[in-house]
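INFO batch 0412 | record 1 of 1 | parsing
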Amino acid sequence: MRPMEILLRLSEGQATDDLLDFFQRREMPARRLEEEDCLAVELPAGLQERHARQEIELLLRVWQLMHPNVAVDVL
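INFO prediction complete | emitting tokens
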């Protein structure tokens, strides 16, 4: 069974590698899905689900400030 994950879809597939690297540099396990523009980010262990999601969403906001032309949908 896989750990709980948040699925993300980017408006620009070429930015997917950058977001993947961003999460991995912060020791957040993430992986590219079959769709070129989608990632799955593993919820941090040891946190309640709500807090784990908030942590990922905060990191995502930071990344989006650096990439204002890329929209990211949480699926």
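INFO post-check: Strands lie at 5-10, 30-32, 38-42, 72-74.
INFO record closed
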